């Protein structure tokens, strides 16, 4: 079955960095775009970044542009989110998905907490 397992979150100070990982299984990874979303308490879910199936193109939310970088390794069925210069507003549960509108089970996500 389709699975997503996110990791790499933690507690980080403003201005710090984290690298999130998303390991997948159960589908042909190289055939799908991969997206990173985040969900903060009492806030709407936000798509943070997306990368095309081959990794040639990516898009970012305005709120993270210039600070976050999405990447993927199709040989490892994995995607990554490099988070630099984090700010308090980056605090959220981060999780990954594939494609658009596919009703896969969500992974557990990885919590990122930015605090002085």
> Helix/strand/pairing class, anyone?
mainly beta
How far apart are the first and last residues' alpha carbons, in Å?
40 Å
> Low-confidence spans: pLDDT under 50, at least 5 residues?
none
Number of strands: 10
Largest sheet: 6 strands, mixed
Could you state the order of secondary-structure elements as H and E?
A: EEEEEEEEEE
What does this structure look like?
With 116 residues, the chain is an all-beta fold. Helices cover 0% and strands 47% of the residues. The chain is built from no helices and ten strands. The protein has strands at residues 3-7, 10-12, 18-25, 34-39, 46-51, 58-60, 68-73, 78-83, 92-98, 110-114. The strands form two sheets. The chain has a six-stranded mixed beta sheet with strand order 2-10-9-4-5-6, with no helix packed on it. It has a four-stranded antiparallel beta sheet with strand order 1-3-8-7, with no helix packed on it. Strand 7 (68-73) and strand 8 form a beta hairpin. The chain is globular, with a radius of gyration of 13 Å. The N and C termini lie far apart (40 Å). The model has no long low-confidence stretch (mean pLDDT 97).
């Amino acid at each position: 079955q389709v699975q997503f397992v996110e990791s790499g979150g933690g507690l980080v100070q403003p201005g710090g960095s984290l690298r999130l990982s998303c390991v997948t299984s159960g589908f042909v990874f190289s055939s799908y775009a991969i997206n990173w979303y985040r969900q903060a308490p009492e806030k709407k879910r936000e798509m943070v970044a997306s990368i095309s199936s081959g990794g040639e193109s990516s898009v970012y939310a305005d709120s993270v542009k210039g600070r976050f970088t999405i990447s993927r390794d199709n040989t490892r069925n994995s995607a990554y989110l490099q988070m630099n210069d984090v700010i308090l507003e980056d605090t959220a549960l981060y999780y990954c998905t594939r494609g658009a509108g596919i009703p896969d089970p969500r992974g557990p996500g990885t919590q990122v907490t930015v605090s002085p």
